[in-house]
Amino acid sequence: MAVDFFSFLGLPRKLNLDAADLERRYRTLSREFHPDYFYNAPAAERRASLERSSYLNDAYRTLRQPVTRVEYLLGLEGVGPGSTEDAAQKVPPALLEEVFTLNEELDAVRQLRASGAPGSEWRPRLESAREPIEAKRVEHESQLSALSARWDALVDANAPATERVRVLEALRERVLERNYINNLLATITRELGSANQEP
């Protein structure tokens, strides 16, 4: 397909979309492209219907979630977030202190568990270690939201590319940090989960 997901759904390249409008557009196009309507059509038309229907589903899945919408826009604008592997290996500077503190706490908890300490001794430490990371996640969600609003304002104002690029780069940094934060939270959850499976 030659058009991007936003254009395909008749939407501007904005990050704050009306969910009800997106749903309405999706349903309208779903009915228009549904393969059942092309049952008796020539093979080429049936194939095109399937392709459009599949593309529509991908577009809807991507644009209905704010974070995947941001990631998609970054890719469209040539400011992709980079590979997940790179993001996981490189600690964003804004998170260095939290990562260092969390790793120390995880090491201490693992030592306690290995020494046979009861869960009542180390579980609260894991929960406590989660709090600053969760606070960072909430802060990043707020920053993503503010940057999304800024992007939309620049689109509405038809701002120069230099201004847009600065916002896109800031969005990319927030997305990378957000992904790293989610990995940290997943690590804590895994530690708690594996501990729950111990005899």
Keywords:
199 residues; mainly alpha; Helix Hairpins; 8 helices; 0% strand; elongated
Description:
The chain has 199 residues and is mainly α. The chain folds into two domains: 5-64, Helix Hairpins (Orthogonal Bundle), CATH 1.10.287.110; 84-196. It contains eight helices and no strands. The chain has helices at residues 5-8, 19-33, 43-63, 66-76, 84-89, 96-114, 119-156, 161-196. Helix 6 (96-114) runs parallel beside helix 8 and helix 7 runs antiparallel to helix 8 (161-196). The longest helix is centred in the C-terminal third of the chain and has 38 residues, at 119-156. The radius of gyration is 22 Å and the shape is elongated. The mean pLDDT is 86.
Itemize the secondary structure elements and their pairings.
Elements: H1 5-8, H2 19-33, H3 43-63, H4 66-76, H5 84-89, H6 96-114, H7 119-156, H8 161-196
Strand content: under 5%
What kind of oligomer do you see?
A: single chain
Number of domains: 2
Biggest β-sheet description: none
Distance between the termini: 54 Å
Give a summary of the structure in a few sentences.
The protein has 199 residues and is mainly alpha-helical. The chain is built from eight helices and no strands. The longest helix is centred in the last third of the chain and has 38 residues, at 119-156.
